[in-house]
Write a structure and sequence with these properties.
Number of domains: 5
Structural class: mainly alpha
CATH topology of the largest domain: Lysozyme
Strand content: 5-15%
Shape: elongated
Distance between the termini: 29 Å
Largest sheet: 2 strands, parallel
CATH architecture of the largest domain: Orthogonal Bundle
Radius of gyration: 29 Å
Helix content: 40-55%
Mean pLDDT: 79
Number of helices: 26
Number of strands: 8
Length: 560
């Protein structure tokens, strides 16, 4: 079973590990029911306690506070797991437990789909981890493989000497066989970036065929992250990336920028070649580090990479690395000779908009009349679904003017899902967080501060406002009659927000929903501030939060 990655996966994992996959495995025995059944009053209190955590967790999830939501939803499940006799102590507890798991799982999937503008975008596995550790048995290669490779090298113009020894030919056979699908996908994806990579390498005066280093490193995936924490198309480690000018902070990681990382890779490869005077050794150093290669040469008195490869100086990954690059150059430049058919993806085409304020990428996608995935594809260095305050944003070609005009018409409070706050005397991250209904840890992260940082008066802070959910269970379910009629026949009133108010508490007070409050007031998130005014459509029935117009707590949790 594939457990979802990211924010939601903790719930599935918790449920499966806690009850031994009893609901997933047909052969798993039902937990014993020998324990004495809980008393009715105790059962009511237990279910009410779990429902309280469930409701709180779902509300936090709606507001974008994913860490808090996780804690509350974990507690809801934990109530049942630690009950006397366990989660199956009696029929009522078992039914409530299953209902809780189903609700949590449903909302988990929604959370994954909707995302959170301030939650880091999940990376992808790096190819170097997948293919670099393959144990290749260098059996004698076929004469056909050798003949085709020699023919390809003879007909193609290569700007780097390519070896056709048994190690390289074995990699060619690997690409044709075991890694055929992976190699085909990498070739197709490379169409996006190869023209720009070649142009950059030509400008730096290094061989353009080194572009295929990126194929082996990452399969041209900008979000690739290795087990060693190297990232991006060129798999820069944090320290090396910083050394070559790739910035990394809470908002961005330029190792994932194809343009910036390619320039850095060109400079780094050029430096390595100047150090070793040999491209195979330079490539080995790119993978293992120059110090590792230099020590190996000195210890084993080797004079080139292929001699060093026969020693114990290099790990298996580095021993595979250079042959795989040479093989990739041969196959990628003559794919038809090896039976590869694919449609290369078109090079990315975009314009740049200089932003002077932070913007949620979902707002950008609406303004550019494109998808969120397209905006993210054009700006892979963004670690969040929002931009920093000052950022050169790439948008689809022909959309720069449209985006500028669109953003100019959006009121500042709707343009982004965060506010700025000027620190007053005596304020702390905790007190500011309480004022805005935001975790102090989130404010600290957004401003690259430590959690216990003392704030100076006049300091301007970014206050992340929870992201609006893009998926809602309620979208497929009818509202109660009173709520449904509120917009059509209700009378508008103005409500001044008091300290401590949230959209949820206001909605409960007036017998409406958070979604309606957002719609009536043009809100894109759940963040509000004391002193602001909301428009609320009321009816005699809904005013004051009549019980007839409100859902019970568990229904509200499922609908909101």
């Amino acid at each position: 079973m594939r457990v979802p990655r990211g924010i939601g996966g903790f719930l599935v994992l918790l449920a499966l590990t806690s009850i031994g996959c009893a609901r997933s495995r047909p052969d798993a025995p039902e937990p014993p029911k020998t324990a004495a059944p809980a008393q009715p009053l105790a059962t009511d209190k237990l279910i009410a306690a779990a429902d309280g955590h469930l409701k709180s967790g779902l509300q936090l999830l709606d507001e974008g506070h994913l860490t808090g939501a996780r804690a509350e939803l974990d507690k809801a499940v934990e109530v049942y797991l630690t009950a006397p006799g366990g989660a199956y102590a009696d029929t009522r507890i078992a039914d409530a437990y299953r209902r809780t798991l189903d609700t949590v799982h449903m909302r988990e999937l929604e959370a994954l789909a909707a995302g959170d503008g301030f939650t880091e975008v999940l990376p992808e596995p790096a190819s170097i981890d997948e293919v670099g550790s393959i144990a290749m048995t260098e059996q004698p290669v076929t004469e056909e493989t050798r003949r085709i490779a020699e023919d390809a090298v003879r007909q193609e113009v290569n700007d780097i000497p390519v070896e056709l020894n048994d190690s390289v030919l074995s990699c060619i056979e690997l690409y044709q066989g075991r890694l055929r699908e992976w190699f085909t996908e990498a070739l197709a994806r490379g169409g996006r970036y190869l023209p720009q990579i070649r142009a950059t390498f030509a400008a730096e005066g290094i061989p353009q065929d080194l572009a295929y280093v990126a194929l082996v490193e990452s399969a041209f995936k900008t979000g690739a992250l290795s087990r060693a924490k190297a990232k991006g198309v060129w798999q820069f480690m944090p320290a090396t990336g910083k050394e070559y000018g790739l910035n990394r902070d809470w908002w961005i990681d330029e190792r994932s920028s194809p343009e910036k990382a390619t320039r850095a890779a060109a400079k780094y490869l050029k430096t390595l070649y100047q150090t070793f005077g040999d491209w195979p050794l330079a490539l080995a150093a790119y993978n293992a580090g120059p110090g590792k290669v230099q020590r190996g040469l000195e210890r084993y008195k080797a004079n080139d990479y292929w001699a060093l490869r026969r020693t114990r100086a290099l790990r298996r990954e580095t021993k595979n690395y250079v042959p795989m690059i040479h093989a990739a150059i041969v196959v990628a430049k003559a794919p038809e000779k090896y039976g590869f058919t694919y449609e290369p993806e078109a090079p990315l085409s975009f314009e740049t908009v200089a932003l002077q304020s932070a913007v949620d990428l979902r707002t950008i996608s609406e303004c550019a009349e494109t998808t969120l995935d397209t905006v993210r594809l054009l700006n892979p260095e963004l670690r969040r679904l929002a931009t920093p305050v000052a950022f050169a944003l790439n948008v689809p070609e022909g959309k720069a003017a449209t985006v500028k005009e669109c953003l100019g018409k959006i009121p500042p409070e709707r343009r982004v899902r965060f506010r700025t706050h000027v620190v007053a005397r005596g304020q702390t991250l905790a007190s500011i967080g309480r004022r805005y209904g935001v975790r102090a840890a989130d404010i600290a992260q957004a401003n690259a501060l430590s959690a216990d940082k003392r704030l100076g008066r006049g300091t301007e802070l970014i206050i992340p406002i929870p992201a609006e959910r893009t998926t809602s269970v309620a979208s497929a379910r009818p509202r109660t009659t009173a709520v449904a009629q509120a917009t059509a026949s209700g009378k508008p009133i103005s409500y001044r927000i008091k300290p401590g108010d949230t959209l949820s508490t206001i909605a409960t007070q007036y017998g409406t929903t958070v979604q309606h409050l957002r719609k009536w007031n043009g809100l894109r998130g759940s963040g509000i501030a004391a002193g602001e005014t909301l428009t609320i459509y009321t009816t005699e029935r809904s005013k004051g939060g009549s019980a007839a117009s409100r859902l019970d707590p568990l229904q509200a949790a499922a609908h909101e």
